[in-house]
TrEMBL record:
Record's keyword terms, sorted: Disulfide bond, Lectin, Signal
Keyword Repressor: no
PANTHER family: MANNOSE, PHOSPHOLIPASE, LECTIN RECEPTOR RELATED
Organism domain of life: Eukaryota
Signal sequence, start to end: 1-17
Organism this protein belongs to: Mytilus galloprovincialis
Protein name as annotated: C-type lectin 8
InterPro entries (alphabetical): C-type_lectin-like, C-type_lectin-like/link_sf, C-type_lectin/snaclec_domain, C-type_lectin_CS, CTDL_fold
């Protein structure tokens, strides 16, 4: 093996361990704030279109990272959970039931059948359930060590 080949291998390995341009790295994830506004389903499809998914944040540390990230933004933000199958039984889109939660006071209230999870500006970006057909900004997430192609 030549030195050049080893160097190239190291560069390739390293480049796969970075978040794409514009994404923020935290722990084992890369996060992207999308300013366009879509309903929850279209937002999930938009994330999937860039080899990601709506953010699924299952720890206090990740939730606080996102809240801090949004403190420089405006509006409300979809993330990746619903209770549309069984009312009150919240699941991340990947299938996991909620463990850690960060609900705003008096939420979730299911007002007029709210089945999708947003980070709610009015309550300092704590969690709120809202109607899935409302258009909002959204946060995509992909794995930091993802083997999926890096989108530049
Ligand atoms: Ca419902
Ligand atoms: Ca609900
Ligand atoms: Ca609500």
């Amino acid at each position: 093996m030549t030195v050049g080949f080893i160097l190239l291998s190291v560069i390739i390995a390293f480049s796969h361990a970075l978040c794409p341009n514009g994404w923020r790295h935290f722990q084992d994830s890369c996060f992207l704030t999308k300013q366009e506004t879509l309903n929850w389903n279209d937002a999930q499809h938009a994330c999937q279109g860039i080899n990601a998914r709506l953010a699924e944040v299952q720890t206090h540390a990740k939730v606080e990272f996102l809240r801090n990230m949004l403190s420089k933004e405006d509006g409300d933000w979809w993330i990746g959970a619903k209770d549309d199958v069984t009312e009150g039984q919240w699941r991340w889109a990947s299938g996991e039931l909620f463990d850690y939660t960060d609900w705003a006071p008096n939420e979730p209230n299911n007002d007029h059948d709210q089945d999708c999870l947003q980070m709610f500006k009015t309550d300092q970006y704590h969690w709120d359930d809202d109607r899935c057909d409302v258009a909002k900004h959204f946060i995509c997430e992909k794995g930091f060590n993802s083997t999926l192609p890096v989108i530049g």
